[in-house]
Amino acid sequence: MKKLLNIIAAFSALAIMVLTSCKKDETRLTASMGSPGTLTASTTAPALSLSTASSTAVTFTWPATPVTGYNAPITYTIQVAVKGTNFANVQEIATSSLSQAVTGSDFNKALLALNLTTGTSAQVDVRIKSYIAPNAAVAYSNTLTLTVTPFSLTSYIYVPGDYQGWDPTTAPTLSSPTSNGVYEGKITFISTKSFEFKITPAPSWAVSYGGANGVLSTSGANLVAPSAGTYLIHVDMNALTYTLTKQ
Fold this sequence. Notes:
This protein has 247 residues and is of the alpha+beta class. It has two domains: 32-148, Sandwich (Immunoglobulin-like); 155-246, Immunoglobulin-like, CATH 2.60.40.3620. Helices cover 15% and strands 35% of the residues. The protein has helices spanning 2-28, 104-113; strands at 32-33, 40-41, 56-61, 67-68, 75-82, 91-94, 99-103, 122-131, 138-140, 144-148, 155-158, 173-176, 182-189, 196-197, 210-212, 215-217, 223-224, 229-236, 241-246. The strands form seven sheets. Strands 5, 6, 8, 9 and 10 form a five-stranded antiparallel β-sheet that branches. Strands 2-3-7 form a three-stranded antiparallel β-sheet. The protein has a three-stranded antiparallel β-sheet with strand order 13-18-19, with no helix packed on it. The termini are far apart.
């Protein structure tokens, strides 16, 4: 009996040691975040346009959020929302440092996802979200308000020709809805004029493209439609090719 009691006592002591060790481990592995520092922006009215989309529109900077408990890595995300909505619907811009230069393209993408109207001035709220793990507690920085005007992603090229008096300033256009360098549009060539035309990137003669057999060149001759009528013109400015399909 005494031997049995000794065995039970030994197991009890071992269990207490294990539980104590677990509690110590839990304490050692607990981390918490302090109050975030102040978020600042290089401008509160970033200029956004399709022509400068690849350039930096605004740079956000913030200090590291303090962590107590253990040295846990923190993930930071820039959150953008329509002003006054309390961030009910946010768009997030990923970042890997304490300063993030955001291009016009990336910022505009977030604004369009918030259903803001292109060409119309609006205000958005911006803050930094800090967290240690996806399901852990989150800390937010102060909120900045920016005035922005989103731009349309659609770009155009021009089709001056004999059918409209060779005037690029009034020429019909081909459009690229995502500005990926591929353009389409319908042009009508009239029987009382020649069917010659050119492609210009701007409404001027500064640069113009001609060519033949589906290939464009700045040194090429006037492009020519086969006959009078309406054509769907497809132009790939990346590959410098074109096609005409009669409608």
